[in-house]
Write a structure and sequence with these properties.
Helix content is 33%, strand content 25%. With 382 residues, it is of the alpha+beta class. Helix 1 crosses helix 3, helix 3 runs parallel beside helix 9 and helix 5 packs antiparallel against helix 6. Bound molecules: zinc ion.
């Protein structure tokens, strides 16, 4: 038997930044599971460089629990690390390394639980799903969900082990990523009446986005979230080629992170109306005047009822009922909506340490998760 701490050290040693392959890490997990007689099903991306893994411990029948985690991590470039990011190092009560908290810590605890689960006579299956490309918008798991959706033996509910300090996350926001393309007309910068400045169109549009954000921030507040309302945010902008040219093109990327109670379609419709109003003002004079918004990625919000069976189940195993909302997105919303399966987010570590230089997880958090999973196996074995 290998401890979660030792397995975590192995997992951290694979530099599975989302843009790179996770094949070696998946190989390691597949071999580890094979040592305990467990087969894995892999679902890859088109290029066959990245893989989701699905494995089932126990009887092949409906019911049981799905434990889910992502294998990719965010980059370390531009961050001031004082330890080697892809070599787990233990210092006092902490283990440092990229992904220790988000979320290889949970994956390590799940793998450390496997021998115990295999040795127990499980009455229902424990499904394991490890995905890729979560950090770039829950992209990778979609292929896996196609397979799970078509499968006959669907689990009863799902636990996604993103870091919540082992609190029970019942809600998170959804996310829609969009590109806004603004079209004006070029001219010499001295002849300001001859051109239509696409950067100005973008600024007006961004003003509308900020207005909408401010409106949402003064609406109904959901105090279980750190930021208790839906949010809008502009992340990147490009436009113009030279100071003495009126730019005819500008584009920016923005997002809506919505509470389950805010309909993204309606918010988007309103922004599209604003876009048409802004660009329409100039169309008599400049026929190319236009602002277009295209969605490039979307995943749904999660909202599991406080009185759902899974909340009781997880709360019993944890020995507490600390329920929370989560500000960051996870795969739980997508799993829950695609598979019509109640899901909660519950895992070791805190996102306060995620995505940062010198990311670490407390060993006590790994221990708490080990205990939780060991109780889970006991419960399912009854
Ligand atoms: Zn994560």
């Amino acid at each position: 038997m290998t401890s979660s701490e030792d397995i975590l050290a192995r997992l951290v040693s694979f530099p599975t930044i989302s843009k790179d392959s996770n094949a070696e890490l998946i190989d390691y997990i597949r071999n580890y599971l094979a040592d305990y007689g467990i087969d894995s099903i892999l679902v890859s991306n088109d290029e066959k460089t990245k893989f989701n893994l699905h494995a089932v411990i126990g009887p092949d029948k409906p019911g049981g629990v799905l434990l889910s985690g992502h294998t990719d991590v965010v980059p370390v470039e531009g961050q001031n690390w004082t330890v080697a990011p892809f070599c787990a190092s233990r210092l006092g009560d902490r283990i440092y390394g990229r992904g220790t908290t988000d979320m290889k810590g949970f994956v390590a605890c799940v793998l450390a639980m496997v021998p115990h689960a295999v040795a127990s006579k499980l009455a229902e299956p424990i499904h394991l799903v490890f995905s890729y490309d979560e950090e770039i918008g829950c992209i990778g798991i979609r292929g896996m969900l196609d397979v799970l959706e078509a499968g006959h033996a669907r689990p009863r509910f799902c636990i996604v082990g993103e870091p919540t300090s082992m609190k029970i996350g019942i809600a998170h926001k959804g996310k829609t990523g969009m590109t806004c393309r603004c079209y004006g007309a070029s001219a010499h910068s001295a002849l300001t009446t001859e051109g239509l400045n696409a950067i100005y169109l973008a600024c007006d549009m961004i003003g509308e986005i900020r207005n909408l954000h401010n409106e949402l921030s003064s609406g109904v507040l959901h105090e279980e979230f750190g930021v208790p309302h839906s949010t809008l945010h502009v992340g990147t902008i490009q436009g113009g080629t030279a100071l003495n040219i009126i730019p005819n093109y500008c584009e920016f990327k923005f997002e809506i992170r919505n509470l389950e109670t805010d309909n993204t379609g309606l918010l988007l419709k309103r922004l599209q109306n604003s876009a048409e109003t802004i660009a329409g003002r100039y169309r008599n004079e400049f026929e190319d005047s236009d602002i277009r918004i295209d969605v490039f990625n979307q995943y749904p919000a999660l909202r599991t009822r406080r009185d759902a069976q899974i909340v009781d189940f997880v709360s019993d195993l944890l020995g507490h009922n600390e329920i929370t909302g989560i500000d960051f997105g996870t795969e739980a919303g997508m799993i829950s909506s695609r598979l019509s399966m109640p899901a909660v987010v519950c895992g070791p570590g805190s996102m306060d340490q995620g995505h940062k230089p010198d990311e670490y997880i407390l060993i006590s958090e790994l221990n708490r998760c080990d205990v939780f999973l060991s109780r889970l196996v006991h419960r399912i074995a009854q």
